[in-house]
Write the structure tokens for this entry.
Amino acid sequence: MTVTGPKGFRAAGVAAGIKASGALDLTLVVNDGPLDVAAGVFTRNVIKAAPVLWSQEVLKQQKLKAVVLNSGGANAATGPGGFQDTHATAEKVAEVLDIGAIEVAVCSTGLIGERLPMAAVLSGVDSAVKALDTSAEASLNAASGVMTTDTKPKQAFAEHAAGWSVGGFAKGAGMLAPNLATMLSVLTTDAVAEKEVLDRALRAATRVTYDRLDVDGGTSTNDTVLVLASGASGVEPTEAELTEQLTAVAHDLVLQLRADSEGATKDVDVTVRGAASEDDAVVVARTIAEDNLVKTALFGSDPNWGRIAMALGRAPARIDPETVSITINGVTLFASGTTAADRSAADLSERAIEVVVDLGVGSAEATVYTTDLSHGYVEENSAYSS
């Protein structure tokens, strides 16, 4: 069990008819308490989907009793009507669960620019409420109901020795380049947590996990990460313990997202060390991770360090060419401004690739998780709307 692993949570995933395929397409997660503390982080894209605007507003009170999520339509760039649809969805959940609409977050994912089939959404809420359960099957269905181009559901769970736990699911396979959050993810915990503590713990966890996943440079209009705390374990961990557990689960989900991202044949860690600041380390790593020439070379298993040097050299960070080194899968190919080894010494034939850049100007470090750029990615995204 994942999202229903922590005590106090029920979930469901149903086929509401939003997708023509008949696949699961509506998910509901309910917090039965005794606490209803929540926190969230959202996309920094200026074009925000209606459910993002709604959920940002209701999260101002940092209380949630339910989250409803749909796939098959993003409800983004849909104007006032799209926001009314989001409001109506929250009102429907509130009505069936006998709670307030302000206690319901809404998330959507799918094609941008089209209104949702609201008759299917609203009837799907009724079906989801009837299917709510704490079982492993319910968790799996909930994780499956948010999938778009994902080929498999992503779930994670971690239990602390003190008797509390964190679980959750995530979806995302393309348009993955976080700016505070990426894709859709719902995390649950039965820990006792104050609002401010939960918020800080989530932001600290997402900063080094979801915010370090960068598949294609595209920041979605719908990106949302939510955490709900039921307090049902009766255990109040320290902020450090809560942050550590949330980070562990989020990191697990990030690696699953990367592995299942559209067309990926390589799992690439880009680590930048010796930076003047953590911000510099992140921006250099992200610049390398997003560079199409780097990504296509990795797809071809070509340790072309020259492309990495080109990419890092255009990053807005403190860089001294004479102190930079580039290491690929354990082989240092560039150092002190010149070639350090024949590039053929680096073996990129396996799926896992580690690129390590040492800037040599400080002590800060960061890792960005990315992939290659393959024929499969281009083919899948060229046909997405159909």
Remarks:
- The chain has a mean pLDDT of 94.
- DSSP finds ten helices and 15 strands in the chain.
- Residues 239-259 form the longest helix (21 residues).
- The CA atoms of residues 93 and 258 lie 32 Å apart.
